[in-house]
Amino acid sequence: MAPAGLNGPPSSSAPGTAVSEARVAPVTEERIRAADEEPQNWLSHGRNYSEDRFSPLAEINTGNVARLGLSWEFHTGTLRGLEATPLVVDGILYATTTWSRVLALRADTGELIWQYDPQISRKIANRICCGPVNRGVAIWNDKVYAATLDGYLVALDAASGEPVWRVDTLVDRSRWYSITGAPRVVRGKVIIGNGGAEFNVRGYLSAYDAATGELAWRFFTVPAGPGGPFEHSELEWAAETWDRQSNWSGAGGTVWDSMAYDAELNLLYVGTGNGSPWPRSLRSPSGGDNLFLSSILALRPEDGRLIWHYQTTPGDSWDYTATQHMILADLEIAGDPKRVLLQAPKNGFFYVLDRETGELLSAEKYVHANWAERIDLETGRPVETGIGDYTDRDTYVFPSPAGGHNWHPMAYSPESGLVYIPARDIGWVFSPRGDTIFTYGAKSLDLPGNDPAVPETSGYLKAWDPLRQRLAWQISLPTIWNGGALATAGGLVFQGTGTGYLYAMDAATGELLKEIFLGTGVVAPPISYAVGGEQYIAVLAGWGGPTAMAMQGEEAAATYVNAGRVLAFKLDGGAVDTPPLRPARRIAATLSLDSIDRDAAEHGRMLYVRNCGWCHGVYGSTPMLPDLRYMSAEVHQLFDEIVLEGLYEAKGMASFAEHLSKPDVDAIYAYILTMTEEAGLGRGRSDE
Fold this sequence. Notes:
This protein is mostly beta strands. The protein folds into 2 domains: 17-571, Quinoprotein alcohol dehydrogenase-like superfamily (Methanol Dehydrogenase, Chain A); 598-678, Orthogonal Bundle (Cytochrome Bc1 Complex, Chain D, domain 2).
C-alpha cells in the first residue's frame, strides 16, 4: 500500500511548515480526567493521567482481530529509532520523530497537515547516550508542547504548527544535558525533566506556565554538593545521605521519562535516574542512600514541594533507574480499597505503593535478579546478596543496566487485572576497572553471580498480577529490545517487536491471535483511537535506542532498511509493504590487517566501547548504525577527519575532539581492525 502524505519531512523543512490547518477543541484537565468518555481520542501520553494505556474501544476484539490489516502509513524519512507515543485529538494524530521533529497527520488517512523541525545542530550527537530519539508531545488548550534534544521546550499552535513560545530548560549549557522524554501538562503547567546522567549532569524537574512559558518552579533531585547551594529545603536533608567529605559534582538523578498524576490527591509522580558515576564508591565513598537517586517522588504540582518519596535502589551502583513507567490503579488489598502506584523499574522488582502515602505494600521479582534477595516490607529496603558488590572484583549481576524493564511502557487492563510488562533477562559483568560487558560470553566466566540459576538472555512480554504479585503468563521474544504495550477493552494486548512484527494477543491467556510483519523493528508503544466510529491501532516503527544500536544481532529486522514509519491498522485493511533490503556489507578491497598495533588495539578496546560501541556495536555485534568492521575505503582513509574534525556531522556523526586525542583515535582504529580480523574478513573478503 502506498504511503500517505509526503515521503517524510525534508531535512531543510522550516519550523511550522504547514500544508493546511488542524482545528481541534481545546484539551483541558477536565477532558483528560474524563478520558473514558471520549475513547476515540488519546489525549495524553498514557491516554489518561493514570497512564494505564488501556483503551475502552472494543470494535477490534479477540473474535475478529485476525482481520486486522494496514489502513495507512506515513514515511518519516528517518533511519533511526522512533519511540513516540502518538496523541490523537478529534481526528488529528500528533507524533514526534528523530531530532525532535513534530508531525500532525490526519488520523484516518495519514495525510500530512503540518510539520515542525527545530533544526537541532548535529554537533550534539556525541553528547547523548541513546540516539536522537523523542517520546512524544503534550497538548493543552490550543497548543502542542514538545521538548527538544538540545534542551528547549517549545509551544506550537495546534492548528498550524507555528511556534508560539520557546524556552531554554537547561541550567548549565556547558554540561551535556539532553531531553528525550515527553512533557506532561498538569494544572496549567508544562512539566519536563532531562537526561544526561551518563555524562555527570545534575537532575531536576521544571514546570512552566502553559500559556506563557514562564518558569513556575524547579525541583532538583540531588544536592549540588556537600555545602549546597540547597535550592529548596528537601536538598538539605537529602545531602545527609551523601558522603559530606566527598566533593561530588553533577551526580545524576535525571528525570528523563516517566510521570503520572492523581487529580483527586493532586499529586504529581515522577521517577528519577541513576547516579553519576555509576559506582557509589566513587561519588560517595563512605556510603549512604544518595537521595534522590533511583526514587519515586510525589510532588505538589502548584509549587513542586515534595510530599513523599520512595527509593527503589538506595545507593544505586548499577544504573537501576526508577524512571520506568508508573501506572496508577485502584486495588482491593486484604479487603481494603487502596489507591496504588505500580512500577517495574530496572532493578527487577515489581512495586506496589500506596500512592497517597508512599508506603510499600508489596514487591516481588518479575525477572531474574541476583543483586538482592528480596525487599523488606517493614523497612522498604532491598536485602542485598553481596553479588552486586564490584568494588574489588568482577561480578555477574542481574539485571543489567538495560534493566528487567526499561522505558518501554507497560499497560494495565482493569478488566483482566493484569499489567503487561515488556521485560527481559540479561546480565552484566561489573568490574572495578570499568571494563563492563553485556551477558554475551559471560556465562563461560567463573564469576560471582554466575550459577545454574542464570537464565538465557531473552526478551518477554509478561502478564503480571499486581494483587497476587505473580506471573499470570508470558511469551518469549527473540530479542531483548521490543516495543511498549497497549491493552484494550476488546480483550487484546498489542506489542511491536524488535524483529519487526506487530503482535495481537489474548489479554487473558497470552495466545497470539494475529501477527503482522512490518519489516522494521519496533520499540515504540501502540495506541488505539477511532475516527468516524472506526477503530484504529497505530504505532511508530523504527528500531533504536542504546541496546538496539549496540547489540542488534542477526535476529532483529536487520535484513531490511530501518525505514521509520507511522502505521495505522483497522479491520479488513491491506497488507504491509516491507522496506527495501539493506545493501550487502563489503569491506575495503585493499584493506590489509598485517600491521595492526596490538598494544594500541588493547588500549583502544575500552575507548571503543565507551565512545563508539553504543552506536556502532559492542564487541563486534551487528549494530543498527554502520558496522565499522565493514568500513569503505573512503572511511578508512578519512577516519581521523570523521572522528576528530566532524566530517560526517551532517549525517549525525559529530566530532569527538572534545574527549579523544589523536593517539586515542589511532588506538580505536587499531581495535576496529582486530574486530575485522576476528570476524574472518581479511583482505578483500566480504560476507555477501
